[in-house]
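call fold(seq) -> tokens
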Amino acid sequence: MLPAALREERQFRLLFAGQALSVVGDRITMVVLPFAVLSIGGSTTDVGIVAAAGFLPFIVLGLIGGVIADRMRRQRIMVVSDLVRMGTQLAAGVLLVSGHAEVWHLAALTAVFGAADAFFAPAMGGLMPQTIDQPHHLQPANALRSMSMSTGSIVGPVLGGLLVALAGEGTALIVDAGTFLVSVACLLALRPREVVRGEVPEPFIADLAGGWHEVRARTWVWSFLLAMVVYHVIVLPSIFVLGPVLMEDELDGATSWAVIVTAFGLGSFVSDFLLLRFRPRFALRTAAMGLGVASCQAAIIGSGLPIAAIAAVEFCSAIGVSGFFTLWETSLQEHIPETSISRVTSYDYAASAGMIPLGVIVAGPVSDAIGIHETLAGMTALGILAAVLCLSVPAVRNLPRGAVRDTAAPDPAAP
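ret:
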């Protein structure tokens, strides 16, 4: 039987269907792109540069995207973003297949992809609660969305590895381009609740400042965001840069990495399944503990264990990763008004994804200087410290459950 959030929330069901396949394509790219760079003669530093190019736009455009998403129909923004990202993946795939790809091509196209994503992500963060009519379905809906990402993390690496082995990295990126069409079709059919905004929009700068006020006024928000910065800057480069490089140097390259990422996806799926029913009394406290577990993944990758053992322990760390993301997003949706949620979400992405380039650019040189295994162990130590400090903040530990909503009405207009 389908979960209640899918049975009873038609608009969420449409959104979920559109994003599920797109996520599979994204996970294919996550596995394939580092090896695409290496396949055309790129270095470890080049892998870091290409990865950073996808996140740098969040620093400049993420906050702008949040303001626009709180002022315009969010699904329109998402449709345009999907079409742009489809174009970049198609161009990158054709360049690789034709043998004309260079590192700067991949970096530039990844940057355009990231720019479109900087508008998509805040719009998605705001649109998701608009598709939910019953507040108690928020956490299960976030768990289902996360479950689609987990499933993508299982299916995507397998497909990515097969596509690379049978047809090459370029073909894999072209397949990802096709998945965006499904997302566009579902978004065009979507009829979310309309968020009642002021008749006269505030000046752009005032709207931007309003988003910052929503963040600054809540200790639990900015405290958790600081911990997220540490996780994304210090821990996640183990996934985007050092993990693939270590697999290429010491194990079986893309095949070994696909095994690890698939195990991670399975662990995430288990966590998401549990969160369909398990509703912790203090969601953010549980999320902070999950962040500590999530930070262990860097040390696990660099542990020197056999690939099967690394995959098994990554399965466990994935439970923490999926749990903290789902409960963090649910906490934002329960406590931030819908008229401001995209701006707050944009600060979330700017403080997390927008900061990743700092880590992925530095990860390669640091690992060259002190050793890749030592770097991975240090990443975990700093990530756990940040999670413990976050958990020590009373506003994080004691945030109650809630559901703050603006007055809303059905949206009869097409996107």
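The chain is about 80% helix and 0% strand.
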